[in-house]
Amino acid sequence: MIEPGATIGILGGGQLGRMTVLAASALGYRCHVYCPIKDSPAKQATSLSTTASYGNKAALARFANAVDVVTFEFENVPGDTAEFLAEHKPVRPGPNALRIAQDRIKEKDFLRSIGIATAPYRAVSNEAELRAAVAAMGPRGILKTVRMGYDGKGQTGIRAETNLAEAWKGFGSTDGILEGFVEFACEISVIVARGENGKWASYAPVENQHVNHILDTTIAPARVAPAIAMRAEAIATHIAEKLDLVGLLAVEMFVTHDGQVLVNEIAPRPHNSGHWTIDACYTNQFEQLVRAICGLPLGSPERHSDAVMKNLIGADIEKWREAINDPLQKIHLYGKDKAEPGRKMGHVTRLISRR
Ligand code: AMP
Fold it and tell me: Of the four listed, 47, 82, 125, 188, which is most buried by Cβ atoms within 10 Å?
């Protein structure tokens, strides 16, 4: 067991890291944040930090020396960085989960190999392959970058009327995946925590509404039939087990009109759709991560309230002024100075009593 007083190393300095630092601090841990950006949200929350690139071996070695366990809050940390650190200190979740999650083709191949349904997909690296994929899969799809895509970055919608030559030119990468478009009834996600001993605890499935491919609202719990909720939880725990994951796994899924549950993406880290757990659950996702990676028993993922979480994106940050007057709204701001369009600046959770 890595006991309170020890130091948790966090790769990545964004809001997920910031909220991990806050939860770890409550349990008496120190956190050391490693991130190339100087004034990042997570660094504001702790006095221990390194500002260096993810490829800087000397800085990584010093970081490994200074911490007792390493985790990450940013999925695009290079796999080599995680592997280098794993030679010195436990990295949880392990580099394998990271490598799978950061490559959409590896991710879908892996999911299929363990019997999990996904949207149809094909790798495409040039215009001819895009044409062949559209001919085979049907005219409606989404062309995505295989790596480094998040919040809808690097995505191009494909329809029957799309000029494929122009779409391919505009895509601007040779590393593509065409996914069949899923006509979903709703999008849901499940976050599961898994400890070293294989014990797990999962949060209730939640419903996610996106605007411009970015998460806008999470409704907890999801408004789906109990059988769908149970299937979604079973899918998430099955994936965590097959990855032999220690830490947190978020699984994003589509629920189709005929009741299929298809996995869209997995993320081996805290997730935006779990922010509601801070205010509405006995143990929030960040504390659960700390417990899992430090070998502490997992806490209860049960909720004492239902909740609706709304992201404050870009200029929406100003909405905190309204929310602060409502006693049932909990405000979380991430300390970012520039409110650029599409940038997640904070979130507000509205609690709904279950009584
Ligand atoms: P992603 O970056 O893969 O999470 O995609 C962002 C959002 O785009 C998803 O949450 C969906 O709302 C939408 N989306 C992504 N892939 C598909 C798909 N194959 N079919 C329909 N909608 C999708």
Answer: 188
